[in-house]
Amino acid sequence: MRISTLALAVALATAPAAAFAAEGTAAGIAGGAATGAVLGGPVGAVAGGVAGGVIGTLASPPERVKTYVVQEQRPSVVYEGDVVVGKPVPQTVEVYRVPDSDYSYTVINQKRYIVDSDRKVVEVVD
């Protein structure tokens, strides 16, 4: 019975955890654990956390994109609002394409942000 419960929790937690993938490993773990806990109790929380972490890691931009973003010199813009992973950057903020990838980036308040084609922040690069 425990194995069936674990298998069900993993299966049910994997799909909802995909929604958290753009936020990376930490948010994937948190989202997967929360979803798993609702669906399968403590066992579901563990299974969901593992599944969410894997999905979040797989959704991270490739290392070459991060390297490119760090090496490029672009001016930082000042923005008074919050810049949050999973949320789009304002249309007033210029984004720069990363060659040969589906990502762009911007520099806001001295921090570098990788964004997807919808301008959603997918990672903060230090």
UniProtKB/TrEMBL annotation:
| InterPro entries in UniProt | DUF1236
- The residue range of the signal peptide is 1-21
In terms of domain of life, where is this protein from?
Bacteria
Keywords from the named record? Signal
Quick check: keyword Signal in the entry?
Answer: yes
- Pfam families to which the protein is assigned, alphabetical: DUF1236
Protein name (record) = DUF1236 domain-containing protein
Q: Which organism is it from?
A: Methylopila capsulata
